[in-house]
Amino acid sequence: MSSADGQHGYTVTHQAQPPASYDTYMGQIILSCFSFWCCGWLFGGVAFVFAMLAVDSAKKGDREKGDKLGKYSYILSAVGIVFGIIMFSVIIGINASASK
After folding, report:
1. Which helix H or strand E contains 85, and what residues bound it?
2. pLDDT per residue over 38-52, tens digit each?
3. Residue 87, CB half-sphere, CA atoms under 13 Å: how many?
4. Dist CA 48 CA 69 (whole Å)
5. Which is nearest to 28 in space by CA: 78, 96, 82, 84?
6. Could you tell me if 55 and 99 are in contact, meaning their C-beta atoms sit under 8 angstroms apart?
7. Model pTM?
8. Beta partners for residue 72, in sequence order
């Protein structure tokens, strides 16, 4: 595109990139999925929701809220895993005592 004075017109666009310290909260997402599929849907499902809310908050720039929600996700996943291990142990114990 050329104008009468010999200058060319260009449009420059800039797409904002996330900051270098942007955390994807992938650890929380993976742990909540593990908790959901292996140890019970209740704690794992809620932990997954918190992990996704953490990702959304971080994308919106509210890093503090994202970290807090990510921490809740870790806690719920850990509680779900511990609860699952206890329940599996109880079920195995009951089955072992019933078979005698």
Report:
1. helix 63-98
2. 888 899 999 999 999
3. 9
4. 10
5. 78
6. no
7. 0.70
8. none
36 Cβ neighbours under 8 A, 6+ residues apart: 43, 44, 45, 47, 48, 80
pLDDT digits (tens, 9 = 90+) for 69-90: 999 999 999 999 999 999 999 9
Distance CA 27, CA 42 (A): 19
Dihedral pair phi/psi, residue 2, rounded to 5°: -125, 140
Assign 9 to helix, strand or coil: coil
Mean pLDDT of 29-37: 91
For the packed helices 41-59 and 63-98, what is the interaxial angle rounded to 10 degrees?
A: 170
- The single residue listed with the structure tokens 């993976």 is 30
Dist. CA 59–CA 5, nearest whole Å: 45
State the amino acid at position 31 in one-letter form.
L
